[in-house]
């Protein structure tokens, strides 16, 4: 605990030094924790902003609104249109770089309008070990990542959030729907809708941690191993439902759920070099 206390002290010192900030607020575990601590240190000199678009998960905007209300944050929703950017829609391995560059650029303009000197994100220490080109965009634009700077890991943040009474401390990690597509497959509104419908349906069956990876006409379902039995027990119904959504083939990934599985090809290539 002493180590986490030291890290928390660093976060608070960083926030105090900013004087005021706009925070990119998804309503997930990391940004909620950062917003709570930032509010304690910055008070009225803090603005939380949530991006909403078709690449985001159903209910994400509403969850962010509710969490902002609980925390008493000054909060704004902005609508983003990632698919209007050809570099994003083409879905190269740099997709997240282009997405974050667009978003952070807009947030920097908002911060300037509100007289806030910095924009913050909720990146943590663990994030730097995955393939995250969006973090490079943040560095280039001067976005501050106090949780990462202080060395706070995801487990640290969950434990500290629990101690602070934040209700979402054990919320599963989420990522935008564009992460469901293999690099090189163009992202469209129709494909995003297919993934959204498939994940909503599987969620309605009681599966909380899942991804539906989109491979053309094939849907590759990732769930934790404990839920394999549920998927297999309902295999016929799941196949029929996903067929109606537009998938001809439906498969269960025997490796199970893992965050960022579409980056495995990128990471494997990097390890060979």
Can you describe what's shown?
The chain has 273 residues and is of the alpha/beta class. It has 12 helices and 7 strands. It has helices at 2-18, 29-42, 60-71, 86-89, 95-113, 133-141, 146-149, 154-163, 189-204, 228-233, 235-245, 264-272; strands at residues 21-24, 46-52, 75-79, 118-120, 210-215, 218-223, 249-252. The strands form 2 sheets. It has a 4-stranded parallel beta sheet, sandwiched between helices. The protein has a 3-stranded mixed beta sheet with strand order 5-6-7, covered by helices on one side. Strand 2, helix 3 and strand 3 form a beta-alpha-beta unit. The termini are far apart.
DSSP helix count?
12
Counting helices, strands and paired strands, the structural category is alpha/beta
Biggest sheet details: 4 strands, parallel
> Approximately what portion of the residues adopt beta-strand conformation?
5-15%
Report the end-to-end length measured between terminal Cα atoms: 38 Å
Mean pLDDT: 94
> How helical, in percent, are the residues?
40-55%
Spatial shape = globular
In the predicted model, the low-confidence regions spanning at least 5 consecutive residues are none
Number of strands: 7
H-E string: HEHEHEHHEHHHHEEHHEH
Radius of gyration: 19 Å
In terms of quaternary structure, the protein is single chain
Strand order of the largest sheet: 3-2-1-4
Q: Quick summary of this structure?
A:
This protein has 273 residues and is an alpha/beta fold.
Question: What is the strand and helix layout of this fold?
Answer:
Elements: H1 2-18, E1 21-24, H2 29-42, E2 46-52, H3 60-71, E3 75-79, H4 86-89, H5 95-113, E4 118-120, H6 133-141, H7 146-149, H8 154-163, H9 189-204, E5 210-215, E6 218-223, H10 228-233, H11 235-245, E7 249-252, H12 264-272
Parallel strand pairs: 1-2, 1-4, 2-3, 6-7
Antiparallel strand pairs: 5-6
Helix pairs in contact: 1-2, 5-6, 9-11
């Amino acid at each position: 605990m002493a180590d986490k206390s030291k890290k928390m002290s660093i976060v608070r010192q960083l926030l105090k030094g900013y004087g005021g900030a706009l925070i990119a607020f998804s309503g997930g575990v990391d940004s909620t924790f950062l917003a709570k601590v930032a509010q304690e240190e910055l008070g009225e000199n803090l603005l939380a902003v949530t991006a909403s678009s078709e690449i985001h998960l159903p209910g994400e905007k509403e969850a962010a609104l509710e969490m902002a209300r609980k925390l008493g944050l000054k909060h704004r929703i902005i609508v983003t249109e990632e698919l209007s950017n050809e570099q994003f829609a083409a879905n190269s391995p740099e997709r997240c770089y282009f997405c974050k560059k667009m978003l952070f650029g807009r947030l920097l303009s908002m911060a300037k309008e509100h007289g806030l000197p910095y924009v913050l994100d909720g990146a943590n220490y663990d994030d730097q070990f995955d393939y995250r080109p969006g973090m490079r965009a943040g560095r280039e634009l001067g976005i501050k990542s106090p949780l990462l700077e202080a060395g706070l890991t995801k487990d640290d943040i969950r434990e500290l959030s629990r101690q602070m009474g934040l209700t979402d401390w054990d919320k599963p990690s989420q990522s935008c729907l564009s992460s469901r597509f293999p690099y090189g497959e163009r992202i469209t509104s129709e494909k995003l809708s297919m993934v959204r419908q498939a994940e909503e349906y599987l969620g309605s069956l009681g599966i909380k941690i899942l991804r539906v990876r989109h491979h053309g006409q094939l849907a590759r379902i990732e769930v934790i191993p404990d839920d394999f039995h549920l998927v297999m027990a309902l295999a016929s119904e799941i196949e029929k439902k996903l067929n109606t959504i537009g998938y001809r083939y439906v498969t269960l990934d025997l490796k199970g759920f893992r965050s960022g599985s579409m980056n495995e090809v990128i990471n494997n290539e990097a390890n060979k070099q």
